[in-house]
Amino acid sequence: MTDIATLERDVLAAIDSAADEAAVEDVRIGALGKSGSISALLKTLGGMTPDERKEKGPQINGLRDRVQGAIAARKEALGEAALEARLASERVDVSLPVQDGPEARGRIHPISQVIDEITAIFGDMGFAIAEGPDVETDDLNFTKLNFPVGHPAREMHDTFFFAPDENGERKLLRTHTSPVQVRTMLAQQPPIRVICPGRTYRNDSDQTHTPMFHQVEGLVIDKSANLGHLKWILEEFCKSFFEIDDVKMRFRPSFFPFTEPSMEVDIQCSRKGGEIRFGEGDDWLEILGCGMVHPNVLRNCGLDPEVYQGFAWGMGIDRIAMLKYGMPDLRPFFEADVRWLAHYGFRPLDLPTLTGGLSS
Amino acid sequence: MKFTISWLKEHLDTDASVAEIAETLTRVGLEVEAIEDRAAALSAFTIAYVIEAKQHPNADRLRVCMVDTGAGEPVQVVCGAPNARTGMKGVFSPPGSYIPGKKVTLGKGVIRGVESNGMLVSEAELELSDDHDGIIELPADAPVGQPYAPYAGLDDAVIEIAVTPNRADALGVAGIARDLAAAGLGKLKSSAVQPIPGSFPCPVKVKLDFTEGDKKLCPAFALRLVRGVKNGPSPDWLQARLRAVGLRPINALVDITNFMTLDRNRPLHVFDAAKVKGNVTVRRARAGETILALDGKTYTLTDEQVVIADEHGVESLAGIMGGEASGSSETTTDVLIESALWDPLNVARSGRALGINSDARYRFERGVDPDFARPGLDLATALVIELCGGEASEMEFVGELPASPAAIDFPWSEVKRLTGLELPQAEMQAALVSLGFEVSGDGDRVTVAPPSWRADVGGKADLVEEIVRIASLDRVASTPLPRIKGEVVKPVLTVLQKRTRIAKRTLAARGLVEAVTWSFISHDQAKLFGGGSPKLALANPIAADLSDMRPSLLPGLIRAAQSNADRGFPDVALFEVGQVFKSDEPEGQLIAATGLRRGTARLDGTGRHWDGGAKNVDLFDAKADVLGLLSGLGIPTGGLQIVAGGPAWAHPGRSATLQFGPKGVIGAFGEVHPKILKALDVKGPLVAFEIHLDALPLPKAKPTKVKPKLALSDFQPVTRDFAFIVDKAVAAGDMVKTAQGTDRALIANVGVFDLYEGAGVEAGKKSVALAVTLQPTEKTLTEAEIEAVGSKIVAEIGKRYGATLRG
Question: For residue A165, which of B533, B25, B788, B803 has the smallest C-alpha distance?
Fold first, then answer.
């Protein structure tokens, strides 16, 4: 009896004091190996009488089980300590900076973003996007739009011209997106609902004018579209685009050769500290021109003004971008300064939707 | 167009405030641009009496004045004006008032040791005139303590309106009053003109010397002599009126013509009859004729311009400006007054050609009231006689007044049809009548005759505009526009529109920054990139370097990259998706998606970093961008060929063309050619790509949205590596394709995992290591089967490219 208890005490002490997994293994071999001390004891069971075996068997087997358990526990503890030591040695400086990824550096130009915003709003109202060439004919840019030849309104456009061709016809850079109206009416039958965003050009340059800029034109033609509908569309557009709950607009009679009646539209705003805010204040800001499509324009496009009617409007994309996002000056839009683009541009996945909001 | 409230009230009987008048003007379409209310700006300045002015003890040129301001104790003011003296009345400015002419707010001060509690001001300091020689002196009966502005008649607000080109009738104060009266703001005062019979025949005869086709250049011409006038300064009321709207009074005769222009939109001209020789002829100018005009400049004419000539030659530019030689002066005693009609187009063209902007041109090119040519002459004659005396001749009138605008058949329902606004018929009729239209007939459909001054009104829509602008557009109610079909909207974007949007987002997601650059570039740059055709060169560019429509987005982007580098940002990645121009036809305008990377602006990072060196961009960055773009656009690239060598802008050995067959070129990528860098004056390293979105294959129409069935293998793929030694010129891409082709069913992927030249590899050769992945689908491959595929690859590549396995 005494030898079993002594043996157990000695072996467990050896396990406890083993400094590493190799030492534990040595103890195991010494105790449980082929010629180990406990293995030797186990071998003695075979030569015992059944009664002796009944008494000694559980003692020796118990000793083996306890030693095995102690070895496993010691091994696990040592493994744990070794892992901790390794991990401690593998510490790195997590404060080291990483490179900005492409998603952080890439930008969408405000003009593209605003066109996507406009498209989201009008797309929901069932408007398609119509496009036309920048290099236009005099006929589509002016004549079909009811600009009489030589009329002062033509001169007000500061048109860029190309050299006349062999027939004396000279093409021009479109001065507005309105020729796309004409192209649309010539190409398709009413009902028509389109918006026409695009580049436009005028020979003019100062703080608020660049020789190239962007406009969006809207056109609705059917048998009943009237000024009331136009008002509603523009009010809904402004609320949605500027992301405000309410907007007050003022429609002033004005003049454009291609609409009759014609109007300019002001939007109520406040100007505090140079920031323009809509839906408050008592200032007015001109934002767009619009009107009922002139009967002559309908006729020029092959539509009978006694049957068809409709309205059109046009506004500056760059201008409404500036109003919404606060760029103070137009010229940097076209200077590709990466500092400006990083600041005023939009992240690659800032996708404007009506469901998720136009801007984040 | 500027006018004062008191001027307006000569034509309009109204009690409306300035604010109401302004609000109404804008509401009827005469947009108010500015209201200058000098009474408000000058409200701090009052009339004061100088009780005593004595010499300043410490300054020879200053005086110390005790001033009675009418408000309690006298105030001590130090004054430097030479005319400050005891007993005078002047204008006092208290401390705290803003002096407009000096742009300062006055404070209390001590001047050379003497306290000064305000200021006596000059006209210049109040911006009333340029006179700053002395302080304002007022008559002895001026009421001390009263505000100065109303006393001086300055409490007359000046309103400036923007008049649209169709509203020539609003270029006279009388016409503006008519609109306001129609809008309910007051009663229009009668402005009927009494004809002047004349007591002798006009001694100067007029000949309209035009061919039949040219008659429209001067449809009618009226002339009258007034003899025995005494010209001189015009009376105060007239001078004040002209000054208030920014005109300088000249002499009574000239001031009368300016007044008629502004008051009635009736430009006139006056000749000094003593300087006109013989009769006058109205005709086209003869090429080379010259005239010294009233602006002091000499103009050389062509036969495109119309003139009034006498026996001396050209005396006046028709409808634009008179001549110096026959102009009126203080010594004029006999004056010829001209009131004519001119062709708006010709006046516009001539004015533009000569570079003359005059009030007369401005009005004639918009169109004056033809029926007022004669009354206008009578009214001017009456004014001349009233202000200068004299005796009028009969009116010499030649030509014919054009017919009034045609009457319009007008159903009242047109207003509701176009505007949605339902108005009582009586209200609509009243609006038209008050604007001078004649409405005849009754019932639902009437005939409306526009007045002679509304040549712009030609159809039903114009009448609708007249009615709703007077009724107010505010009354048109917002009405929701119903959906065309009451259903969820259908997609509206075309393939190209979608691709344009996705291209932008894809490139931005690759770290490129979207630029929008000019559609026009310099001629030299256009030529470098395959453009520069005369058909795409602007005849009137805004600047020499913005003259030609761009054939490519690259020159703009390359220059933009350099500008950023010059500002201290050398590592930039830019792109633009936009129009390029191959011809001046609509189909010659294409959409390109173009990008570039400069310096170290690579996909995974820019500049120096602790984790790796600052590696410069190379053409593989551009290749990755372009393939990433195609992938983002969902373009199947199975048939895409990448052919060595690119367009002229690219380094010939470091560029490639992307194509679906030789006729299906879609774009290119590569390092920018050193010659291009030099020509554009920029520095590299610079790599770029461009894709023509129009050239991309269209997606195939599919009957359903179901994706092809996914077949996954239950067996593990195996990979085997092969390192080949080949000539440097062999394209690794070709080796990959050949390897793939040896067993299409089994080989799932071939990658290039190592490329090596140098020690251990013979000069002129390179080592290309391929990793071939086999994907069994029916059973696990045996070593022998794998070996068989490997041998086939080695044999095929060996045969095609003279490749040997690396030892």
Answer: B533
Contact B574, B561 (CB under 8 A): yes
Residue B107 burial class via C-beta count within 10 angstroms: exposed 0-12, middle 13-18, buried 19 and up:
exposed
- Measuring CA to CA, which residue among B397, B400, B418 is closest to residue B467? B418
Q: Are B265 and B245 in contact (CB under 8 A)?
A: no
Residues A218-237 have pLDDT tens digits of 999 999 999 999 999 999 99
Is B250 touching A (CB cutoff 8 A)?
Answer: no
A178 neighbors A314 (Cβ within 8 angstroms):
yes
Q: C-alpha angle B429/A229/B483, rounded to 5°?
A: 145
Q: Residue range B338-355: average pLDDT?
A: 93
Contact with chain A for residue B61, Cβ under 8 A: no
Distance in Å, alpha carbon of B453 to nearest chain A alpha carbon: 17
Percent of chain A whose pLDDT exceeds 90: 65
The answer for residues whose C-beta is within 8 angstroms of residue A306's C-beta and 6 or more apart is none
Token pair of A61, please? 């087997």
Interface predicted TM-score (ipTM) of this complex, two decimals? 0.89
pLDDT in tens, A44-86: 888 888 888 888 888 888 888 998 999 999 999 999 998 999 9
- The pLDDT assigned to B682 comes to 94
Please list every residue in chain B whose beta carbon sits closer than 8 Å to the beta carbon of residue A112: 501, 504, 514, 516, 577
In tens, the pLDDT along A243-282 reads 999 889 999 999 999 999 999 999 998 888 778 888 788 8
B-chain residues near A167 (CB < 8 A): none
Q: For residue A191, is the peptide bond before it cis, meaning its omega torsion is within 30 degrees of 0? A: yes
Give contacts of B 335-364 with A, CB under 8 A: 345, 348-349, 352
The alpha carbon of B603 is separated from its chain's Cα centroid by a whole number of angstroms, namely 40
Q: What is the predicted pLDDT for the residue at A280?
A: 81
* Cα angle B3, B4, B9; round to 5: 110
B587: Cβ contacts below 8 Å, ≥ 6 apart: none
CA-CA-CA-CA torsion for B740, B745, B749, B755, nearest 10 degrees?
Answer: -30
Structure tokens at B369: 């009231």
CA nearest A122 in B: which residue?
B492
Residues B736, B739, B744, B745: is their CA dihedral positive or negative? negative
Please list the residues that pair with B211 across neighbouring strands. Answer: none
Cβ <8 Å between B476 and A251? yes
User: How high is the pLDDT of residue A2?
Assistant: 55
Residues of A in contact with B510 (CB under 8 A): 102, 106
Whether the Cβ atoms of residue B208 and residue B68 lie closer than 8 Å to each other: no
- What is the chain B residue with the closest CA to A265? B473
Measure Cα distances from A349 to A108, A113, B603, B624, B691 in Å. 9, 11, 17, 20, 22
pLDDT digits (tens, 9 = 90+) for B697-755: 998 888 888 998 998 989 999 999 999 999 999 999 999 999 999 999 999 999 999 99
- For β-strands A283-293 and A128-129, DSSP reports them as unpaired
Q: What are the structural domains of chain B?
A: 2-37+157-188 (3.30.56.10), 40-151 (2.40.50.140), 206-399 (3.50.40.10), 408-475 (3.30.56.10), 495-695 (3.30.930.10), 718-805 (3.30.70.380)
The answer to whether A123 contacts B510, with C-beta atoms less than 8 Å apart, is no
**Which of chain A's residues have a Cβ under 8 Å away from the Cβ of B574?**
336, 338
Q: Cα separation of B390 and B413, whole Å?
A: 56
Q: How do residues A290-326 score in pLDDT, each as one tens digit?
A: 999 999 999 999 999 999 999 999 999 999 999 999 8
Residue A153 pLDDT grade (very low, low, confident, very high; cuts 50, 70, 90): low
Q: Which residues is A195 bridged to in the sheet?
A: A129, A218
